[in-house]
Design goal:
193 residues; mainly alpha
């Protein structure tokens, strides 16, 4: 693209010419997509976000900024560098969002169910009152007095957050500690059968 063509394109973009926007996307779209695909190395990120969608997001941001009249680009190299910068920032945002989702997913769900019947597996060994009583004694022998109170409170319907707050610990820490104890109970029960 010659300097005069570039200046003409920028002027047309400043007036809101939709044909100029299409010309710009046609001229730089493939290059921006390649750059985005290169930056999106994470397979999960690639599976969740298509490079075309990210490209469109980059151009949408560009056109929004160009429409305000604040954007002054003197050369084609400046335009290309600005588009690559927008693409780099957008991919970084997506990576941060993905990391935040992972952290959020690993955090304790308030409505997560907690039932000793989970230990029984598909056989339903806790269907009878005697089996349930035996299971409760086994759990109590492993978890100790403090954690047993936490188990009882969870069975009464309190959330992990409420139970952990009473104990001065984090909900996820308490949940994992009790989950480990329940796994020990399950291992004991299945090894004797």
């Amino acid at each position: 693209m010659s300097d005069s063509q570039f200046v003409s394109l920028v002027d047309r973009l400043g007036t809101g010419d939709s044909e100029a926007a299409g010309d710009l996307m046609l001229a730089y779209g493939a290059e921006i997509r390649r750059f985005i695909r290169f930056r999106m190395r994470d397979s999960v990120l690639r599976r969740l976000h298509d490079s075309i969608d990210v490209e469109q997001s980059v151009f949408r941001r560009f056109f929004k900024r160009a429409g305000t009249g604040d954007l002054r680009l003197a050369t084609e190299d400046e335009l290309r560098a600005y588009l690559f910068t927008l693409a780099k920032h957008r991919v970084s945002e997506l990576k941060r969002e993905q990391s935040a989702q992972k952290r959020k997913a690993s955090f304790v769900e308030e409505d997560s169910s907690f039932q000793l019947g989970q230990l029984a597996g598909t056989g339903g060994a806790t269907d009878s009152a005697a089996a349930e009583s035996e299971l409760m004694m086994e759990v109590r022998s492993i978890v100790g007095t403090d954690d047993w109170e936490a188990v009882v409170q969870r069975l009464e319907g309190r959330t992990w957050k409420e139970v952990a707050r009473d104990r001065g610990t984090k909900p996820d820490t308490l949940r994992k500690r009790l989950q480990t104890a329940l796994q020990l109970v399950k291992a004991r029960l299945t090894s004797t059968e």
